[in-house]
Here is the input.
Amino acid sequence: MQYGRRGRGEERRGFGPRRFPPKPVEIGKEYDVEIQETSRRGEGIARIKGLVCFVRGTKPGEHVRIRITRISRRFAEAEVVGKAEAAPAEEEAAEAAEEEEETEESEE
Here is the structure.
């Protein structure tokens, strides 16, 4: 009777091999993300297609452009490159706000 170790030919019973799906990011590529929360270590957390990305020096609610520096099985690490480019809807809202300010100034 054997306990503990299995022979080389045996596989784990009841569980298939652990496979992690391909990552939606690549090292060195840049992405625009929104920081959603803070980790226990104080890093910002963003998600890219479900993959958790830890970003140092960020706070929840920030929109930043990041570069992937490391990819692990379950997460990625990144550094801030700059501010994220505004989405078209955000650009339109900013332009509308500027136009309102200009009309208020010209009326005064």
Q: What stands out?
A: The two ends are 93 Å apart (CA to CA). The longest strand covers residues 63-71.
